[in-house]
Amino acid sequence: MTTGPGRPRLTNQRRPGQTTPEEILDAAGELFTTKGFAATSTRQIAEMVGIRQASLYHHFPNKEEILVALLEETVSPALAAAGRLADAAAPATVRLHALANYDVTQLTATKWNLGALYLLPELLTDRFEPFRAQRTLLRRHYRQLADQALTEITDDSGDTSPALTDLPFRIVESAIATRADIERGLLPRPENEGAAGLLADACLRALGWTKPMDEIRAKSRALLAETAGGTPLRL
């Protein structure tokens, strides 16, 4: 096995992944979320993969570029889902619930809690501006859906507080800290996989939804299933 032209592995494959970059990202995800970004070196990442440090640089020029790739994995799927849901012919309450459900699921189902990297001070540097822009765009999608949902819930088209329309985005990202507490043993591991649905429910409750959630949940699931195939669902 090789990692590139003239770059033989030190050992057989150690990490999951179809390609060497995927193995590198898996190892870096573990180290960054357990040891910390600053405390992790490219040599340590290479050793976990079983390749030479020089071979790692064949795929990523430095540690920051590895972090860029990992962060992109956390926001791009949700942005794509938000774009599909924005065009769906469904009530905003359903679309907001569906986006929150999808986003929480992808934040909590990954092997490593990559969302915990959002608070790294390194993300304030220019190199991470594209990621910050992506996250800001996702946040804008949430605010727009929340504003539309508020109109449906309250039948009021007046100006709404930015703090209120920002609540769904913040509720969704609370899944990152909750996951960290569970992994540290500070909270019990849930007995079922309903966390995504509960947080999606909370997004609507925070906006004033007081009706039962069963119908919203069913339509949300159906909408996600339909838009995953690229065809918006009409409800």
From TrEMBL:
Q: What are the residue boundaries of the HTH tetR-type domain, all occurrences included?
A: 18-78
Pfam families (alphabetical)? TetR_N
Stored InterPro entries: Homeodomain-like_sf, HTH-type_TetR-like_transc_reg, HTH_TetR
What terms describe the molecular function in GO for this protein? DNA-binding transcription factor activity; transcription cis-regulatory region binding
SUPFAM superfamilies membership: Homeodomain-like (SSF46689)
UniProt DNA-binding residue ranges: 41-60
Which key words tag this protein in UniProt? DNA-binding, Transcription, Transcription regulation
What name has this protein been given in UniProt? TetR/AcrR family transcriptional regulator
Q: Which organism is it from?
A: Rhodococcus opacus
